[in-house]
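pinging the channel bc i need a second pair of eyes. not urgent but kinda urgent?? the chain im working w is below, pasted from the shared doc
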Amino acid sequence: MKAIKEGLIFSLFVNTFLICPQFVTGQNKSVLLMNGYAHLGNGKVIENSVIGIKDGKIVMVADARVIKLNPKGFDTVINLSGKQVYPGIIAPNSTIGLVEMEAVRASNDIEEVGSINPNVRSQDAYNADSKIIPTIRSNGILIAQVCPRKGLLPGTSSIFELDGWNWEDALLKGDDGVQLNFPHLPIEKMQVDPPVLAEKKVLYEKELQNLKKFFLDAKAYKEVENQEEKNLRFEAMKGVFDGSRKLFIHVDYAKDIITAISFIKELGIKSPVIVGAKDAWLVMGLLKENNLPVMLGRVHDLPLRPDDDTDMPFKLPSILQKAGILFCLQNEGDMEVMNSRNLPFLAGTAEAYGLTKEEALTAITLSPAQILGIADKVGSLETGKEATLFVSNGDALEMKSNQVALVYIRGKQIDLNNEQKDLYEKYKKKYGLK
């Protein structure tokens, strides 16, 4: 029996080592990345860079041509000549780790019963073992804001590094903000019967009043210092009023954006963020006047209205950039978990329609970090920040050239294998392909 037990323990150790090498080896070693073309994420580039990593932090970012350097101070030196270095891409407003197969209800954990549930926490449902996560990392997406969906107040989001044994290991910032699906004013269309439209307007007004009442009650609850009985929904809202949590307001149409801005001003919301905002180009003055950051809806989408410019979703990032509005890109929509890997290519489309390459990169790195309140840790290649970055053989924003060769999350080198790559190699070998 003793021999059998020892054999089982040894087998478990070997299998764990083979499956999860990124958690076992080489995590405390210092690394020097030399001669790469570094895109810093803040608009700057270094053509011949040297980046030093120690204890999970970036300790050096410099031009290798103008400094004196002793590589002996690092355990590992990697020559990146001909390759490009980027800060880890951030996927805001995602359901990564909450959805495995959209067609299988048991694998979806994005919503709770009821419409008003700000106390529902995505961090408690996050699945660090999702098979989708390694496929997303393969394109350079290394951080994600994970959000619940559906209902007026579906819950509270959290921010994760896409690496870890469990949600506690992966958690970068817990309970960063409350998600609000703002009521949508019915659009008057000729094909809608007047009685149906009138009924929808009544429901809209009722929903808006109920939402306002809840916020007023939550604000009054916050003012009472010693509560005799805890209300979990109101407890979750406290941070929205004192600014310790953001309020992410999902809204698209111009009229609804204007109503939402009046709503947050009336209630004294400290840190609001507009999410979606497909009509942002119609209310740019209002957004800038109120200093509202925007998480733009999916760039690869149809225009909001039949008479809008066909390329409006593509050029909207450039319009906001020229207006001086802080914005980032996100990928909410159909099949969004699997499509999260395409986030760098959304930035590539925005580049083709007006942004510079570095502005497009900033829209998926430093800008989301600033909006999410984590720019002191990630979002750009700067000394003192966490060493969360990746190396690509080509332009990371181009679908044909983005070939991620090396990934570090908080200084740990990450295994880039995933189930899809394994299947590719398996069937390539079966059919004798090269």
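so The chain has two domains: 19-88+379-434, 89-378. and The radius of gyration is 24 Å. — does that match what u expected or am i reading it wrong
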